[in-house]
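Table S7 (text form). Paired inputs.
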Amino acid sequence: MSEESIIVVGGGIAGLTGAALLSKEGYQVTLVEAHSQLGGCAGTFKRGSYTFDVGATQVAGLERGGIHHRLFNYLDIPLPDAKILDPGCSVTLGDGSRPINLWHDPLRWQKERQEQFPGSEIFWSLCSKIHESNWEFVERDPILPVRNFWDLSQLIRAIRPSNLLTGFLSKLTIADLLTITGCHKDRRLRSFLDLQLKLYSQEPASRTAALYGATVLQMAQSPRGLWHLHGSMQILSDLLKDSFLRDGGSLLIGHRVTKIIRKENSNVFDVKVLDRRKNLLQMKASDIVFSLPPQSLLDLIPIDGGLSTTYRESIKKLPKPSGAVVFYGALRRVDLPVDCPGHIQVFDEHFGSLFISISLENDQRAPIGMATLIASVFVDIDQWSNLDSQAYTRKKSVVSKQIRAILDHKFDLLETSWDHQELSTPRSFERWTGRPSGIVGGLGQHPDQFGPFGLSSRTPLKGLWLCGDSIYPGEGTAGVSQSALMVVRQLLESKGRHLNIPVFN
């Protein structure tokens, strides 16, 4: 392998996007993925005739001008077949009131929220102004956080007067916006916001950055939207893989990076990789794009491997991400309610938020007349990490029954309704994705770790770049794709080149 080559670590959507872009730009790129399948948390698995999405079940950014649309157009690959979700989600607060539907049509959503939360329009109007300002900013591809003059130049280029105004809100939370608009006494509105924000920022309204929360609360509405992929979430990975291989990329599936070292006064990384047969491969690269959680660096780069003690300590001090428990089930479609929404969020006294995704008829996830159902809950990873095998098995069984009971009650299901059921835990995600302790979703979007105050894609170790859900604000395939675009632009700039992806108006 040439010393001018680039190694991308991790074959999730972020790593695949970065690898595909770099290959299209003519670089010699090797993508190393430890699992036997690409996709990471946006991957899939099969159980008989059923296909289950591992984690992510919906996609943002497929609309004209959205991040996936922009990148796929640039990579000259087709957009996946997808259907807009309408409603994007149906939220049940557990207070006996009817569900809150997040309609795609902005006027219909306005009518819905006026009926559900009377007197709150001033809050939603402020969120809308922030949302519009944010998109003006994001579509110009700013670099955040700023770490050098070029980063600063890209930030300044993206700023407009409206961004300067909303910038004054950068240290506020969504709860602060409720107070400013006089809506803080509406407990039902607050409950709704806490549920929705937990999905996207892993934080409640009191801890979600206002600039981030105002945008994700309106992602389901036109001209943007949430999409359901025909087939499975794996389609995104397959398309990016095809682009990567078409442009000369080298793919190492079932290979695990075990050590990364950059010796003092060296311009080259030495990378050790174990193949499927446990043979040790020695590789070299001028740059490494690391798409795994940054916490993984602590195990892969030894103390003398080039990463400063200060930076190592800063990674250790990152807020602890959540884990997830996910129930995967298959059942008869006739036993589900007529016109059942594809995505439902339910408040539960024990779990807090339960997010449910149900396959559509003819979307290739289940045979005709059947449906897959995925129900996920964020959990504290410490609740699962220190259990012995017997305690783990017992806890897994208890949690599975608890989630089944919620689903049976919600949809009035019987034992005979179910054809398949299983549960994954943080330990399962650790085995599947290689993420430390099975953490998912990146860093919570608190004002102190959002945007200009977040973790930079540039590391102090020259040539080592970070991307993924801990870098760009927001998880999901759209957020990690934005992070990949940002890091590729930075990497190319470091080599005297520029990457400009067209913006569609």
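Next pair, protein 2 of 2.
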Amino acid sequence: MPVPTLIPLRRLFFFLCICAVSIIALYSVSHVIVYHIPLTTTVLFPVMTIFLMVFHLMIAGFMVMKYLCDKSRLYHIAIACAFSGATLFMLGTLSSYPDWLTCSPAARINYNDALIYYFFRNVLMAVLFLAAVILFKYRKHNMHTRSNHIIILSVIVSFTLAMLVLSWFVSSHYEGINVAFIDNMTLAFTPLWQKATGGLLITMWLVTLIAMLIITRLRNIFWFSGCFFCVFYIFTLTILLLSPVGESNNWYQARMFETIATLFLIFVLLGDVFTLYKDSNNKYQNSYQNSIRDPMTQLYNRSYFYDSLTQTIARVTPQQPASVIVCDLDHFKRINDSYGHLQGDKVIQFVASILQDSVRENDLAARIGGEEFALLLVNTSSEEAYRVAERIRLIISEHDAQSSSGSFPEKITISMGVFTTTSAGLGVEVCVQRADEAMYQAKENGRNRVVTWQPER
């Protein structure tokens, strides 16, 4: 017996190919854009940060809505806190560019604070992504009680707040602790960033990516996008670590790549939302169709026929009449008793298909009883309705044991009654009753015929 792989190899290969193509394409786009913008444009980085902030806030909103739709998916809250916390960290990044609104060439920029907020943002997101994957793994366990949700949410929110507070203390806002990742004068990365911190962040994202791949097994587009996001952050960190000096191009390109990648993630989530909406709409449509159709013949049922007839009668005029045809199979009980109900069902389904194929798109065919059917023909005169009924009767009567290659045991015939109304004041029950009376008259006159209702004299 073959041992199942942790990740389906075909999915993994497809994921790696998409990652490679996406990284090459996004890197090329960001490279072209950044190197065609003058480096004196100090407003570029803050503007990209604002866009990234908005994108992160949108994703956090998506995650909260997903959780509210299904409380068993607690892992969505961890991802929501990751993106909402990242939004707050980017507010701190904007505070590192106090003069960006003035577009001054000599603007003051605190690169070290920006890198500190970037570091803590990565820690927050990597840890909460990992927490989301763990919560996903245990989503079917007995953990979805009110108390457990409160505890887990409290831990997630507390961790987010702790990261925000800690980042504020180690930045220039608090002089008691001095953490230096980059020299603001020379823009050279310090050994703390190059030899320890940067590598630590990449390791955290790698652990999160591997855990996400193994646990989720890339089972849907949502986790595909989550793994993409981990890869994007690993690559963004690599862009910064490859250079010993934090030159503007590196910062701009890393942020441009991150912005484009996050926008891509939003499109993926929008696609996921569209897919969920489409599936939900299809389920609703299927449920609705099941409620208005006869399960055996797929013709409309009695209730829907009467509702449609009510709406149609309200619009009829002498110039736009409506016709009702009531049909009943002849000697159907004999077929059931002699050949069994399975054979009777085949006859009913055959007749139903003939009726459905014989009406126009705006008309309606329904099964209103065991072997009784009804047709609603809009904007159809009595003479036209009679011709439709006669055509149907002839098609059905042509089928017997020989012509159907043994599918039917004997000749099939049908009796049909036609009634046409031109008055909107006539009740639905009256219309059906008169068509029914004409049908019974056809039965009395020898069956296998069409009779149009005539008033008694």
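The chain is about 65% helix and 5% strand.
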